[in-house]
Structures are given as C-alpha cells and as structure tokens.
Amino acid sequence: MRSSPDSRAVPALQAAAAFAIAGALQISAVPVLPANANEFSVLANGPPTESHLVDDAGVVSRVNKSDIKNLLTDLEERKGFHIDIVTLRKLTSKADAFEFADQLLEKWYPTVEVGNNKGLVLLVTTQKEGAVTGGPEFTKAIGDQILEAVVSENLPVLATDEKYNEALYSTCNRLIAAIDGLPDPGGPKFQENKRESNFKTKKETEEKRGQFTTVVVGLLVIAFVVPMLQYFAYVRK
C-alpha cells in the first residue's frame, strides 16, 4: 500500500524541525568545563581576605596590586563597602562576564546580609570585557549610570589596548568617587580608528538570552504542534 504525500510530509517536517533545534542549541551551547578550569579554582578558593584581588590572569603588576589594596582598604574603613577585583584569562563555564560575576558573588557571599555591601569587578583579558556586580546597598551607592559606564568604557577600552592595570585602577577610582559622592572622573572612549568594543551590558545580555529562549520555543512548536495539526487534518479527510 502506497503512503499518501500528506502522511510522508509529517515525519519529514518533524525531522527538519528537530534538525533546526539541534543546530540552534549547538550554536549557543557553552563548552563543558574541564576539571582544572580557572573559574573552578576562583570559585572554590573563596574571596581574597586582605588583598581585595584575585589575579588569576596574571596581568596585575606588583605596584598596582599594592595601590588597589590601599584604595579599597581605605574605602572599606571609611564607608564600609568591600570591593573584590578578579581577573581571568578567559571564560569557559559561562556565556558572558556578567553571568559569571553574579555566580561568583553569590558563591562568595551567599546571603543578602553578607553580600549587601559587597562589590565585585571582573575583567576577562582574552575577551576584552568586564562586569561589575554587587549587593543591593553597593549597587545603590554606585548607581546604574556609573555601573554601565565602567563596563562600557574603563574595562573594555583599556583592555583592548592591554592596559589591564590602568583598566582596574581607573575602575576602582570611578567606583569610589561614586560612593563618596564626588564628580565622576569619566572614562576612556574608543577611538574611531580602533576596533569597536564587543562588550555587552547586563541588559543586552539578558535580552539576548530572552531572544534565544523565544527561538527555541518556536522551533519546538514547529517540531511537535504543527505536524500534529497536519496529521489530524489528514485523518479527518
């Protein structure tokens, strides 16, 4: 008995939709973490006790380590805000710097009470991007405008020129000025003859995740709902 064209179309559509879903998931998939990934050691070791700095990428000079420690220790003594600085060579466990920074902050300071006045600055040297996150009191003291400016100016612009020490030190100065209520010292801008920054703000990152979720849901509808409707329509004929 020969099958009708409609009956053959149903499994064909299912196969095509399944292939599309697999392709979309493969494109956006994050590589599986190896056991010795840098992120694991940073997460496991906990926050720095006195230095305020975890230089896993090995890009901070001895002088700058001392300067950053003095800046952030003075801030904590005066205002009660604690800021940690973390450098990584690259990210393999998370899709973006903001996601890992949030994970790190929650791991190090797991409750609102503990993390309320804590801040975290992350710089990823290979990707030339960074993130700033923190507890409710910290983000309130800094303000959204300065938080966005730091991750769009100080961190990516100077990291693109591999001026990692300046990127971190200027970021600290800008955050401290905001907490102290002083005028914003500003940050560097990308020059027209330089390549454009590929950084994403936290809002853009969340929007991109939402768009991908919508695409996957749409593909699932195509894979299962549409063939079922076609099948029932065929049976009723």
3D structure, described in words:
Residues 54-177 form the TPM domain. It holds the Pfam family TPM_phosphatase. One of its GO terms (molecular function) is acid phosphatase activity. The protein has 237 residues and is α/β, with parallel strands linked by helices. It has helices at residues 5-28, 38-45, 62-79, 97-108, 112-115, 136-142, 144-160, 164-180, 202-236; strands at residues 53-55, 82-88, 118-124, 129-134. The longest helix is centred in the last third of the chain and has 35 residues, at 202-236.
Low-confidence stretches: 1-7, 15-37, 195-199, 211-217
The number of distinct β-strands equals 4
Mean pLDDT: 79
What structural class is derived from the secondary structure elements? alpha/beta
Compute the CA-based radius of gyration.
24 Å
Number of domains: 1
Biggest β-sheet: strands ordered side by side in the sheet: 1-2-3-4
Our measurement of the CA-to-CA distance between the termini, rounded to an integer number of angstroms, reads 18 Å
Spell the H/E element sequence.
Answer: HHEHEHHEEHHHH
CATH class: Alpha Beta
Beta-strand residue fraction: 5-15%
Morphology call: globular
